[in-house]
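Journal club side-thread
Mid-discussion, someone asked how the predicted structure for our own chain would compare to the paper's figures. Pasting it here so we can look after the session.
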Amino acid sequence: MTRPLTRTIEAALKGISANDLQCLAENMACIKFPERFNGGTLMRRGRNIEGQTTKNWPDACVSTGPGMIDGIEATRQANWAKHLLDDISKV
């Protein structure tokens, strides 16, 4: 059984804009993995000045070592893993 607070959070997340969802994901990643996302330079580059995401570019990523990149991608698409891999290949 889904708890009322969980349902409230799910409904709120479904209703926010793509930009706000992405910003939330980036902030949560920085809190959850500070050594990974705060230790490096988090590149928040996949948006224009109005906050609109840029198709085919990673929304946010950080280099975590030679040839290694960690990305942050908030999407409602089922194929998020392929989407993220395709975007990160351009970094």
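Post-session note: The helical segments are 4-15, 18-32, 34-37, 80-88.
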